Amino acid sequence: MVDDKFERLGSTRVILKNLGFMSVSQVLSRILGMVILVYLARVLQPAAFGQFNFALSIISFFSVVAVFGLDTVGTRALCQNNHNLDIVPQISTLKMVLGVSTLWLVLVFLWFINKTWELKLLIFLCALSVPVATFFDWVFQGLQRMQFNAFSSIITQIIFLAFLFIFVNKPDQVILVPIGQFFAYLVPTIFLGYILFTNININSVLKYTKKNSLYLIKQSVPLVLTNIINIIVLQLIIIIVGFLNTDIELGYFTAAYRIVLILLILEAMIGTAVFPAVCSSYVISVKSANVLIQQAIKWLLLLSIPPTIIIAVFSREIVLLLYGSSYISMVPPVLSVIIWTVPISFINSTCARAMVAYEKEYYYLLILVFIAIITIIISVSFSYFWGLTGASMVPVLIQTLSFPMYYLFFIRHYAVINWPLILKITICSLIMATFLMITYNFHSFLWAIFGMIIFYASSFLFKAIGLEDLEVAKETLLSATRKNNIKNDTNQCKE
Questions:
Q1: Among the listed ranges 194-208, 265-279, 421-435, which one has the minimum average pLDDT value?
Q2: Could you give the angle at the alpha carbon of 121 between the alpha carbons of 115 and 122, nearest 5°?
Q3: Cβ of 491: how many Cβ atoms within 10 Å?
Q4: b/e string for 234-255 if b means 16 or more Cβ within 10 A?
Q5: E strand spans, 108-158
Q6: Distance between CA 270 and CA 302 in Å, rounded?
Q7: What is the pTM of this model?
Q8: Torsion-angle region of 82 (φ positive above 0: left; ψ -120 to 50: alpha; else: beta)
């Protein structure tokens, strides 16, 4: 019992340290990402902005081939095998082969689609980033050295933003955007690769065999299928809107949807920090792993609901502030609906990560098959009959219909959701939303700040947040701000 307590304590400290690094990096990255989004939307204007986002959505499907679930398999293997780095050269070799194969598949696809050669070139240039993006991030996630991932994320955004400021200043320069994106991913990947391969026994490369390759691919197959369906859930609606509407209308829709996708990164940030610890805890104690997942869901909801309510209420003011008057006619009503995808998705995504950590990939795959079928039906029908208004409802409906499936196959067996806590957070959300609706006529973002204060004060009053949670938040910030020498941490990769 004592050992179990210390195990959970150790896991918590590691999570807080990793979450601290990821919190700081993701805050900076999301700020930079929002600057990039706003700059591109304003400079490219709706038509070219829509074309670029259409190209990104197309390439997201091909990225599944390049990754092939190997990132998750590798992270889990490092966590469960005492951080043995012998697997790194094996997976890296596979990823290089798959990356090159992906580019060939993109070329074949472009040969058959009926689009202009300019758009085809834009799609192919976006594909160049696929083999190099986050190539080594899975290793540092598995080693629980998130400071390297944090550094990589920030450098990527800085390089990309600098490139855009220098070279992209008008709509007809949209073709340069994916070129800047490629170099932004390439530089951090080279840096992380240098750190890794100075700490890996080169003889382990010689141990790479066909048998190893087949084993890793077999492990990755269910994850590949789940990733494909996840892309369908997240990106198919953009492609359908692109085929059924004009480039300008697509630009309006993606301007709203990209805000949602940026907020969804918050789940990836916390999930990335928690996933390795959940994998390790599950081997020792399912109860400890359940507690970690409960805490992740709790903090994701506490962090996501206030901005969701603010964006829904002040959608017009936010669109005008970010994108300018060119987007004001259509984007606010789309944004005020589609933003509700965020909190529901956070619960579903956290449960999905837990299912992978618990080695329930096939149940997860079954859920995603159902979700994919629903996504295709709803996306096509709603977009065709109700245009952008219907399209804005699609992500919210999909996430809402997905939850009963997660409950049926996972939540009711492992009790990873604290229902009394969810009720308390819901009450606090209604209080905040009511306050903002009553004071809306003041037309001031100052009331949004008051609304957030009311939400967190209510959460404390209803005991959704306790003193121990404030200590956790304090420890997270301290973990992020403590002096950590990257060189010293690099040497620890040998452990």
A1: 194-208
A2: 95
A3: 11
A4: bbbbbbbbbebbebbbbbbbbb
A5: none
A6: 13
A7: 0.77
A8: left
DSSP annotation string for 197-235:
HTSS-THHHHT--HHHHHHHHHHHHHHHHHHHHHHHHHH
Between helix 286-313 and helix 446-461 the angle, nearest 10°, is 150
pLDDT at 264: 84
**Tokens 């198919």, residue located:** 236
Those residues whose C-beta lies under 8 Å from the C-beta of residue 90, and which sit 6 or more positions away, are 207, 208, 212, 213, 216
Rounded distance between C-alpha atoms, residue 99 and residue 130, angstroms: 7
State the amino acid at position 334 in one-letter form: V
Q: Where are the domains of the chain?
A: 14-417+465-492
Residue 288 has which token pair? 């400890």
The enclosing H or E element of 150 equals: helix 146-167
> Could you tell me the two tokens for 248?
């300008």
Tracing tokens 């939400």 back to the chain, one arrives at: 455
Predicted local confidence at residue 216, as pLDDT: 67
Angle at 324 between CA 319 and CA 328, to 5 degrees: 55
CA distances from 306 to 77, 456, 463 (A): 37, 9, 17
What is the token pair recorded at 163?
């490139």
Confidence of residue 31 (pLDDT cuts 50, 70, 90): confident
Average pLDDT over residues 214-237: 76
Cα 95 to the center of its chain, rounded Å: 20
Q: Name the token pair of 242.
A: 């692109």
pLDDT at 475 (0 to 100): 55
- From the centroid of its chain, how far is CA 118? 29
**Neighbour count for residue 462 (Cβ, 10 Å):** 16
**CA distances (Å), origin 255, targets 334, 339, 406:** 9, 12, 30
Residue 283: CB atoms within 10 A of its CB come to 11
Distance CA 377, CA 394 (A): 10
Chain centre distance of CA 280? 22
Q: Is the pLDDT of residue 375 over 60?
A: yes
Q: Which residues contact 226 (CB under 8 A, 6 or more apart)?
A: 69, 352, 356, 361, 364, 365, 368
Q: Which of 131, 373, 342 shows the shortest CA–CA distance to 233? A: 373
